[in-house]
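Dear colleagues,

As part of the handover before I leave the project, I'm documenting each prediction I ran so the next person doesn't have to rerun anything. This entry is a single chain, and its sequence is reproduced below.
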Amino acid sequence: MSLPAPTDDALRASQALQRLIVLEIERSGPLPFARFMELALYAPDFGYYSGGAEKLGRDGDFTTAPEITSLFGAALARVASAIMAQSAPQILEFGAGTGKLARDILTELAGAGVEVERYAIVELSGELRARQEQALAGFPQVVWLDDFPPSFEGAVIANEVLDAMPVNLVAKKPEGWSELQVCILDGAFAFQAAPASAPLLAQITRQIPDAASLPPGYVTEVHAMACGFMASLARMLGAGKAGAAVLIDYGFPAHEYYLDQRANGTLMCHYRHRAHADPFFLPGLQDITAHVDFTAMALAAQDGGLDVLNYASQAAFLIGAGIDQLLLRTDPSDPAAYLPQAGALHKLLSPAEMGELFKVLVVGHGVELARPLLAGDRRHRL
Protein backbone atom coordinates (compact mmCIF):
# COMPACT_ATOMS: atom_id res chain seq x y z
CA MET A 1 0.00 0.00 0.00
CA SER A 2 1.16 3.51 -0.77
CA LEU A 3 0.32 5.20 2.54
CA PRO A 4 2.04 8.16 4.25
CA ALA A 5 4.77 7.25 6.73
CA PRO A 6 3.99 8.07 10.37
CA THR A 7 6.11 10.36 12.49
CA ASP A 8 8.67 8.76 14.80
CA ASP A 9 6.50 9.48 17.85
CA ALA A 10 3.42 8.00 16.20
CA LEU A 11 5.35 4.91 15.14
CA ARG A 12 6.62 4.39 18.69
CA ALA A 13 3.05 4.67 20.02
CA SER A 14 1.86 2.08 17.50
CA GLN A 15 4.71 -0.24 18.41
CA ALA A 16 3.80 0.08 22.09
CA LEU A 17 0.21 -0.86 21.31
CA GLN A 18 1.36 -3.81 19.21
CA ARG A 19 3.44 -5.07 22.14
CA LEU A 20 0.39 -4.79 24.40
CA ILE A 21 -1.71 -6.83 21.94
CA VAL A 22 1.05 -9.42 21.52
CA LEU A 23 1.27 -9.85 25.30
CA GLU A 24 -2.47 -10.47 25.50
CA ILE A 25 -2.26 -13.07 22.72
CA GLU A 26 0.67 -14.77 24.44
CA ARG A 27 -1.25 -14.78 27.73
CA SER A 28 -4.75 -15.72 26.50
CA GLY A 29 -4.31 -17.20 23.04
CA PRO A 30 -5.72 -15.92 19.73
CA LEU A 31 -8.08 -12.97 20.17
CA PRO A 32 -11.55 -12.58 18.69
CA PHE A 33 -11.27 -9.81 16.12
CA ALA A 34 -13.68 -7.72 18.21
CA ARG A 35 -11.12 -7.72 21.03
CA PHE A 36 -8.28 -6.80 18.65
CA MET A 37 -10.41 -3.95 17.24
CA GLU A 38 -11.31 -2.80 20.75
CA LEU A 39 -7.63 -2.58 21.72
CA ALA A 40 -6.65 -0.92 18.43
CA LEU A 41 -9.29 1.77 18.90
CA TYR A 42 -9.70 2.18 22.64
CA ALA A 43 -6.68 0.84 24.57
CA PRO A 44 -5.74 3.49 27.18
CA ASP A 45 -3.09 5.94 25.94
CA PHE A 46 -2.36 4.08 22.70
CA GLY A 47 -5.70 3.22 21.03
CA TYR A 48 -6.81 5.24 18.03
CA TYR A 49 -9.58 7.04 19.91
CA SER A 50 -7.81 7.23 23.27
CA GLY A 51 -4.44 8.46 21.99
CA GLY A 52 -3.49 12.03 21.21
CA ALA A 53 -3.39 12.10 17.39
CA GLU A 54 -5.81 14.33 15.50
CA LYS A 55 -8.54 12.27 13.89
CA LEU A 56 -10.99 14.57 12.14
CA GLY A 57 -10.65 17.22 9.48
CA ARG A 58 -7.88 18.10 7.07
CA ASP A 59 -5.09 16.96 9.39
CA GLY A 60 -6.86 13.79 10.51
CA ASP A 61 -7.92 10.58 8.83
CA PHE A 62 -11.50 11.27 7.75
CA THR A 63 -14.12 14.02 7.64
CA THR A 64 -17.66 13.78 9.00
CA ALA A 65 -20.80 15.66 7.97
CA PRO A 66 -20.61 18.30 10.75
CA GLU A 67 -17.11 19.20 9.58
CA ILE A 68 -18.39 19.74 6.03
CA THR A 69 -21.09 22.30 6.81
CA SER A 70 -22.99 23.84 9.72
CA LEU A 71 -26.20 23.18 7.81
CA PHE A 72 -26.04 19.57 9.02
CA GLY A 73 -26.19 20.59 12.68
CA ALA A 74 -28.82 23.23 11.98
CA ALA A 75 -31.06 20.61 10.38
CA LEU A 76 -30.57 18.19 13.29
CA ALA A 77 -31.38 21.05 15.67
CA ARG A 78 -34.85 21.27 14.12
CA VAL A 79 -35.40 17.56 14.69
CA ALA A 80 -34.08 17.76 18.26
CA SER A 81 -36.32 20.73 18.99
CA ALA A 82 -39.43 18.78 17.97
CA ILE A 83 -38.39 15.78 20.09
CA MET A 84 -37.65 17.97 23.11
CA ALA A 85 -41.02 19.70 22.77
CA GLN A 86 -42.64 16.29 23.37
CA SER A 87 -40.27 15.14 26.12
CA ALA A 88 -37.73 17.30 27.99
CA PRO A 89 -35.31 20.15 27.07
CA GLN A 90 -32.25 17.93 27.08
CA ILE A 91 -29.88 16.55 24.44
CA LEU A 92 -27.46 13.65 24.83
CA GLU A 93 -24.79 13.14 22.18
CA PHE A 94 -22.60 10.08 21.86
CA GLY A 95 -19.15 10.52 20.31
CA ALA A 96 -19.23 14.27 19.72
CA GLY A 97 -16.09 14.47 17.56
CA THR A 98 -14.55 17.92 17.62
CA GLY A 99 -17.66 19.38 19.26
CA LYS A 100 -18.69 21.15 16.10
CA LEU A 101 -22.03 19.34 15.78
CA ALA A 102 -22.94 20.21 19.37
CA ARG A 103 -21.93 23.83 18.79
CA ASP A 104 -23.96 24.05 15.57
CA ILE A 105 -27.03 22.48 17.21
CA LEU A 106 -26.85 24.73 20.27
CA THR A 107 -26.22 27.83 18.15
CA GLU A 108 -29.21 27.06 15.93
CA LEU A 109 -31.50 26.37 18.88
CA ALA A 110 -30.40 29.53 20.67
CA GLY A 111 -31.13 31.55 17.54
CA ALA A 112 -34.60 30.01 17.39
CA GLY A 113 -35.26 30.78 21.06
CA VAL A 114 -35.31 27.09 22.06
CA GLU A 115 -33.86 26.49 25.51
CA VAL A 116 -31.65 23.47 26.15
CA GLU A 117 -31.26 22.99 29.88
CA ARG A 118 -28.58 20.32 29.55
CA TYR A 119 -26.45 19.06 26.67
CA ALA A 120 -24.62 15.92 27.81
CA ILE A 121 -21.80 14.29 25.84
CA VAL A 122 -20.53 10.73 26.27
CA GLU A 123 -16.99 10.72 24.86
CA LEU A 124 -14.35 7.97 25.17
CA SER A 125 -11.50 9.89 23.54
CA GLY A 126 -9.51 12.18 25.83
CA GLU A 127 -8.08 14.08 22.87
CA LEU A 128 -11.53 14.69 21.37
CA ARG A 129 -13.01 15.65 24.74
CA ALA A 130 -10.32 18.30 25.14
CA ARG A 131 -11.22 19.70 21.71
CA GLN A 132 -14.91 19.62 22.62
CA GLU A 133 -14.31 21.51 25.86
CA GLN A 134 -12.53 24.22 23.92
CA ALA A 135 -15.16 24.41 21.16
CA LEU A 136 -18.07 24.49 23.63
CA ALA A 137 -16.61 26.80 26.26
CA GLY A 138 -19.36 29.34 25.55
CA PHE A 139 -22.19 26.91 26.37
CA PRO A 140 -22.44 26.38 30.15
CA GLN A 141 -25.19 23.77 29.79
CA VAL A 142 -22.74 21.27 28.26
CA VAL A 143 -21.55 18.48 30.56
CA TRP A 144 -19.52 15.33 29.93
CA LEU A 145 -20.43 11.82 31.05
CA ASP A 146 -18.39 8.64 31.14
CA ASP A 147 -21.30 6.30 30.37
CA PHE A 148 -25.04 6.03 29.78
CA PRO A 149 -27.09 7.83 32.42
CA PRO A 150 -29.59 5.48 34.09
CA SER A 151 -32.51 7.31 32.48
CA PHE A 152 -32.98 10.08 29.95
CA GLU A 153 -35.77 12.19 28.48
CA GLY A 154 -35.14 14.33 25.42
CA ALA A 155 -33.24 13.97 22.15
CA VAL A 156 -30.28 11.65 21.63
CA ILE A 157 -27.81 12.18 18.77
CA ALA A 158 -25.28 9.59 17.55
CA ASN A 159 -23.51 10.56 14.33
CA GLU A 160 -21.04 7.94 13.05
CA VAL A 161 -20.91 6.10 16.36
CA LEU A 162 -22.18 2.62 15.51
CA ASP A 163 -19.61 2.06 12.75
CA ALA A 164 -16.74 2.47 15.24
CA MET A 165 -17.95 -0.31 17.54
CA PRO A 166 -15.87 -3.51 17.48
CA VAL A 167 -17.26 -6.34 15.36
CA ASN A 168 -16.69 -10.07 15.25
CA LEU A 169 -15.55 -11.45 11.91
CA VAL A 170 -17.07 -14.73 10.81
CA ALA A 171 -16.38 -16.96 7.82
CA LYS A 172 -18.61 -19.57 6.19
CA LYS A 173 -16.88 -22.93 5.93
CA PRO A 174 -18.22 -26.12 4.30
CA GLU A 175 -18.85 -27.49 7.80
CA GLY A 176 -20.49 -24.28 9.09
CA TRP A 177 -19.55 -20.89 10.51
CA SER A 178 -16.15 -20.12 11.99
CA GLU A 179 -14.87 -17.07 13.82
CA LEU A 180 -11.80 -15.27 12.50
CA GLN A 181 -9.38 -14.67 15.35
CA VAL A 182 -6.11 -12.75 15.50
CA CYS A 183 -2.90 -14.70 16.11
CA ILE A 184 0.83 -14.15 15.61
CA LEU A 185 2.30 -15.78 12.51
CA ASP A 186 5.95 -15.25 11.51
CA GLY A 187 6.14 -12.26 13.83
CA ALA A 188 3.08 -10.46 12.43
CA PHE A 189 -0.64 -10.31 13.17
CA ALA A 190 -2.67 -12.76 11.09
CA PHE A 191 -6.11 -14.34 10.97
CA GLN A 192 -6.90 -17.89 11.93
CA ALA A 193 -10.26 -19.63 11.93
CA ALA A 194 -11.77 -21.15 15.07
CA PRO A 195 -15.15 -22.81 15.68
CA ALA A 196 -17.81 -20.20 16.39
CA SER A 197 -19.11 -20.25 19.97
CA ALA A 198 -22.76 -20.93 20.75
CA PRO A 199 -23.51 -17.23 21.52
CA LEU A 200 -21.83 -16.18 18.27
CA LEU A 201 -23.79 -18.77 16.29
CA ALA A 202 -26.98 -17.45 17.87
CA GLN A 203 -26.02 -13.91 16.84
CA ILE A 204 -25.32 -15.09 13.29
CA THR A 205 -28.72 -16.77 13.11
CA ARG A 206 -30.39 -13.67 14.50
CA GLN A 207 -28.56 -11.19 12.31
CA ILE A 208 -27.95 -12.80 8.90
CA PRO A 209 -30.99 -13.71 6.78
CA ASP A 210 -30.59 -17.05 5.00
CA ALA A 211 -27.17 -17.52 6.59
CA ALA A 212 -27.19 -21.20 5.63
CA SER A 213 -27.47 -20.33 1.93
CA LEU A 214 -24.34 -18.14 1.75
CA PRO A 215 -21.45 -19.74 -0.14
CA PRO A 216 -18.36 -21.25 1.52
CA GLY A 217 -15.62 -18.67 1.95
CA TYR A 218 -18.08 -15.85 2.67
CA VAL A 219 -16.71 -13.42 5.29
CA THR A 220 -18.78 -10.83 7.11
CA GLU A 221 -19.24 -8.98 10.39
CA VAL A 222 -21.44 -9.69 13.39
CA HIS A 223 -22.39 -6.58 15.39
CA ALA A 224 -22.88 -7.90 18.91
CA MET A 225 -21.39 -4.82 20.60
CA ALA A 226 -23.50 -2.37 18.58
CA CYS A 227 -26.59 -4.45 19.40
CA GLY A 228 -25.58 -4.18 23.05
CA PHE A 229 -25.32 -0.40 22.66
CA MET A 230 -28.86 -0.32 21.27
CA ALA A 231 -30.10 -2.42 24.18
CA SER A 232 -28.49 0.03 26.63
CA LEU A 233 -30.00 2.94 24.72
CA ALA A 234 -33.43 1.29 24.98
CA ARG A 235 -33.06 0.80 28.74
CA MET A 236 -31.99 4.41 29.20
CA LEU A 237 -34.84 5.89 27.16
CA GLY A 238 -37.34 3.38 28.51
CA ALA A 239 -36.61 4.55 32.04
CA GLY A 240 -37.81 8.04 31.08
CA LYS A 241 -41.26 9.22 30.10
CA ALA A 242 -40.46 10.11 26.49
CA GLY A 243 -37.55 10.59 24.12
CA ALA A 244 -36.01 9.56 20.84
CA ALA A 245 -32.57 8.80 19.43
CA VAL A 246 -31.35 9.82 15.97
CA LEU A 247 -28.58 7.51 14.74
CA ILE A 248 -26.74 8.45 11.54
CA ASP A 249 -24.22 6.16 9.90
CA TYR A 250 -23.28 4.32 6.74
CA GLY A 251 -24.74 0.89 6.26
CA PHE A 252 -27.58 -1.21 4.91
CA PRO A 253 -30.62 -3.20 6.00
CA ALA A 254 -29.85 -6.90 6.42
CA HIS A 255 -31.20 -8.02 3.06
CA GLU A 256 -28.79 -5.61 1.33
CA TYR A 257 -25.87 -6.15 3.71
CA TYR A 258 -25.33 -9.88 3.20
CA LEU A 259 -25.16 -10.04 -0.59
CA ASP A 260 -22.89 -12.28 -2.64
CA GLN A 261 -20.91 -9.27 -3.88
CA ARG A 262 -19.97 -8.43 -0.27
CA ALA A 263 -18.30 -11.80 0.22
CA ASN A 264 -15.30 -10.14 1.93
CA GLY A 265 -17.40 -8.12 4.37
CA THR A 266 -17.42 -4.35 4.81
CA LEU A 267 -14.47 -3.84 7.16
CA MET A 268 -12.56 -0.69 6.19
CA CYS A 269 -9.66 1.32 7.60
CA HIS A 270 -8.96 5.05 7.27
CA TYR A 271 -5.50 6.57 7.50
CA ARG A 272 -4.73 10.14 6.44
CA HIS A 273 -7.83 10.33 4.22
CA ARG A 274 -6.94 7.07 2.48
CA ALA A 275 -9.17 4.01 2.74
CA HIS A 276 -7.82 0.47 2.73
CA ALA A 277 -8.75 -2.97 4.08
CA ASP A 278 -5.79 -4.01 6.26
CA PRO A 279 -6.76 -3.82 9.97
CA PHE A 280 -3.23 -4.80 11.02
CA PHE A 281 -1.57 -1.72 9.49
CA LEU A 282 -0.11 0.49 12.24
CA PRO A 283 -2.57 -0.36 15.04
CA GLY A 284 -3.58 2.72 16.97
CA LEU A 285 -2.83 5.11 14.11
CA GLN A 286 -5.77 4.28 11.85
CA ASP A 287 -9.52 4.07 12.21
CA ILE A 288 -11.15 0.66 11.77
CA THR A 289 -14.84 0.57 10.89
CA ALA A 290 -17.58 -1.65 9.52
CA HIS A 291 -20.84 -0.74 7.87
CA VAL A 292 -23.89 -0.85 10.13
CA ASP A 293 -26.56 -3.54 9.87
CA PHE A 294 -29.56 -1.30 10.47
CA THR A 295 -31.98 -4.22 10.68
CA ALA A 296 -30.01 -5.62 13.62
CA MET A 297 -29.99 -2.18 15.27
CA ALA A 298 -33.75 -1.76 14.83
CA LEU A 299 -34.46 -5.24 16.20
CA ALA A 300 -32.26 -4.60 19.25
CA ALA A 301 -34.14 -1.35 19.91
CA GLN A 302 -37.50 -3.10 19.53
CA ASP A 303 -36.40 -5.92 21.82
CA GLY A 304 -35.66 -3.23 24.42
CA GLY A 305 -39.17 -1.79 24.14
CA LEU A 306 -38.58 1.15 21.80
CA ASP A 307 -40.54 2.00 18.68
CA VAL A 308 -38.78 2.30 15.34
CA LEU A 309 -39.97 5.75 14.29
CA ASN A 310 -38.12 6.20 11.00
CA TYR A 311 -35.49 4.72 8.73
CA ALA A 312 -34.44 6.81 5.75
CA SER A 313 -31.52 7.80 3.60
CA GLN A 314 -29.54 10.75 4.92
CA ALA A 315 -30.70 12.80 1.92
CA ALA A 316 -34.39 12.16 2.53
CA PHE A 317 -34.07 12.79 6.26
CA LEU A 318 -32.16 16.06 5.92
CA ILE A 319 -34.56 17.34 3.25
CA GLY A 320 -37.44 16.41 5.56
CA ALA A 321 -35.71 18.41 8.28
CA GLY A 322 -35.60 21.44 5.98
CA ILE A 323 -31.92 21.62 5.18
CA ASP A 324 -32.67 23.00 1.71
CA GLN A 325 -34.59 25.87 3.33
CA LEU A 326 -31.66 26.52 5.64
CA LEU A 327 -29.40 26.91 2.62
CA LEU A 328 -31.55 29.81 1.44
CA ARG A 329 -30.45 31.85 4.44
CA THR A 330 -27.36 32.46 2.34
CA ASP A 331 -28.08 34.85 -0.52
CA PRO A 332 -27.71 32.99 -3.88
CA SER A 333 -26.72 36.30 -5.48
CA ASP A 334 -23.54 36.22 -3.39
CA PRO A 335 -21.63 33.38 -5.09
CA ALA A 336 -18.61 33.63 -2.77
CA ALA A 337 -20.83 32.78 0.21
CA TYR A 338 -23.49 30.66 -1.48
CA LEU A 339 -21.50 28.29 -3.69
CA PRO A 340 -19.39 26.70 -0.90
CA GLN A 341 -22.56 26.05 1.09
CA ALA A 342 -24.37 24.65 -1.93
CA GLY A 343 -21.39 22.42 -2.71
CA ALA A 344 -21.31 21.11 0.86
CA LEU A 345 -25.03 20.43 0.74
CA HIS A 346 -24.59 18.52 -2.51
CA LYS A 347 -22.04 16.28 -0.78
CA LEU A 348 -24.50 15.52 2.03
CA LEU A 349 -27.45 14.85 -0.28
CA SER A 350 -26.10 13.42 -3.53
CA PRO A 351 -26.65 9.67 -4.04
CA ALA A 352 -23.11 9.56 -5.43
CA GLU A 353 -21.72 11.07 -2.21
CA MET A 354 -23.17 10.69 1.31
CA GLY A 355 -26.87 11.03 0.54
CA GLU A 356 -27.64 7.36 -0.10
CA LEU A 357 -24.80 5.49 1.61
CA PHE A 358 -25.59 7.15 4.96
CA LYS A 359 -28.86 6.23 6.63
CA VAL A 360 -30.81 7.62 9.58
CA LEU A 361 -32.52 5.39 12.13
CA VAL A 362 -34.81 7.01 14.71
CA VAL A 363 -35.99 5.00 17.70
CA GLY A 364 -37.82 6.09 20.82
CA HIS A 365 -41.12 6.19 22.66
CA GLY A 366 -43.70 8.78 23.58
CA VAL A 367 -42.89 11.07 20.63
CA GLU A 368 -44.01 11.43 17.03
CA LEU A 369 -42.00 12.71 14.09
CA ALA A 370 -43.25 15.50 11.84
CA ARG A 371 -44.79 14.37 8.56
CA PRO A 372 -42.00 15.83 6.34
CA LEU A 373 -39.42 13.61 8.09
CA LEU A 374 -41.47 10.54 7.17
CA ALA A 375 -41.69 11.36 3.46
CA GLY A 376 -38.72 9.10 2.71
CA ASP A 377 -39.47 6.46 5.36
CA ARG A 378 -38.08 3.00 4.50
CA ARG A 379 -38.97 1.04 7.61
CA HIS A 380 -40.58 -1.56 5.35
CA ARG A 381 -37.12 -2.35 3.96
CA LEU A 382 -35.54 -3.18 7.32
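The radius of gyration is 21 Å. The longest helix spans residues 8-28.

All the best with the project,
I.
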